[in-house]
Amino acid sequence: MIIVTNQNMTETQWENLCRNLEERGFQIHVIQGVEKRVIGAVGDKRRVDFRYLESIPGVEKVIPILSPYKLAARDVRPEGSVVQVGDLKIGGGHFGVIAGPCAVESEAQMMEVAEGLKAAGANGLRGGAFKPRTSPYSFQGLEETGLKLLAQAREKTGLPVITELMNLTELDLVVEYADIIQIGARNMQNFGLLRAVGRQPKPVLLKRGLSATVEEWLMAAEYILAEGNEKVILCERGIRTFETATRNTLDLSAVPLVKSLSHLPVVVDPSHGTGKRKLVIPMAKAAVAAGADGLLIEVHTDPANAWSDGEQSLDLNEFGELMKEVRKILAVEGKQLG
Ligand code: PEP
Ligand code: MN
User: Fold this and answer.
1) Strands 94-100, 27-32: parallel, antiparallel or unpaired by DSSP?
2) 127: Cβ below 6 Å to ligand 1?
């Protein structure tokens, strides 16, 4: 449940209320608003008398949360969450465009693409150093060397970097280099990994699982939130359907749906969502119009020779075109880049 308090509540009353809830087995998450302080209390609501809670001075209202996800529910923060890393803001009218290659391949590739993306107006840089590949014989990523190249590109451009964490064993390493940690579609329900990224301070971009329902996706986010990390960004990247004409079926209806159910920002990855370069710009435009808070776009300096996902990667010129189109729709939506 959500307990909304106002300025009439004294510190002693606040502490008593929190202690009282904890004694009844509730897990307390405090959300500090500008004027109001809100408690997200997760536990068995039968163990507390709502009318009693509402009679405590300074308690404005008590809202039960009926959905299985409690901390991810919209009611916890009706105004929506904003996740910020340096100059990059995602959510609350701020739009993030995170772009870069599927995988970090070399210093020359990373520096060239990072500078081109920065010049075109991207406000975040992506690149995989640990790659989840279907075949064990495919390129698996440059690992720590890749992370170092991402850090070098960040230094050169000032762009915050996002990269995927695949295994618990690489947690400290990835946390050390990344500004945002990506949990890939294949790991969306790796609950140990979700808990671990919930216990570290960097923001987490949580991709929707290959065949995950919206509820399963939000429950995965709940694992991260429940460990205390509030900085979660959701990413719609397409789901498996009977359709094989595209790599995945990009579920854009999930954007307004999830935004109505949850306060978490939602970004869209039309690259993996379609698997086809030609579809990336139209679906990116549609994502902005559907109310997304950002985009994750694969861009390569030479898509034809990319080591992975070249067929869905834009080149820098095409990315410039995407930015032009996205800016037009952002203006209509009243949103700003970053
Ligand atoms: C990626 O972003 O490169 C990636 C592997 O994405 P997904 O987990 O959505 O397949
Ligand atoms: Mn990829």
Assistant:
1) unpaired
2) no
Ligand 1, residue 103: give the atom nearest the CA: 3
Q: Is 204 exposed, middle or buried (0-12, 13-18, 19+ CB in 10 A)?
A: buried
Q: Which ligand is nearest to the CA of 126?
A: 1
**How far apart, in whole angstroms, are the C-alpha atoms of residue 318 and residue 278?**
10
What is the distance of C-alpha 71 from the center of its chain?
15
Residue 234's DSSP bridge partners are: 206, 266
Fold exhibited by the domain 83-337: TIM Barrel (3.20.20)
Q: 270: Cβ below 6 Å to ligand 1?
A: no
Return per-residue pLDDT of the chain as tens, 338 residues: 999 999 889 999 999 999 999 999 999 999 887 778 999 999 988 888 888 899 999 999 999 998 999 999 999 999 999 999 998 999 999 999 999 999 999 999 999 999 999 999 999 999 999 999 999 999 999 999 999 999 999 999 999 999 999 999 999 999 999 999 999 999 999 999 999 999 999 999 999 999 999 999 999 999 999 999 999 999 999 999 999 999 999 999 999 999 999 999 999 999 999 999 999 999 999 999 999 999 999 999 999 999 999 999 999 999 999 999 999 999 999 999 98
The CATH 3.30.70.1140 domain(s) of the chain lie at: 2-64
Please compute, for residue 173, the number of CA atoms within 13 A of its CA located in the half-sphere on the CB side. 16
Q: What's the pTM?
A: 0.95
CATH assignment of 2-64, among 3.30.70.1140, 1.10.10.10, 3.40.50.1000, 1.10.760.10: 3.30.70.1140
Which is it for the CA torsion 198, 199, 205, 208, positive or negative? negative
Point out which residues pair with 41 in neighbouring strands: 28
Give the position, in ligand 1's atom list, of the atom nearest the Cα of 308.
3
CATH 3.20.20.70 domain position(s) in the chain: 83-337
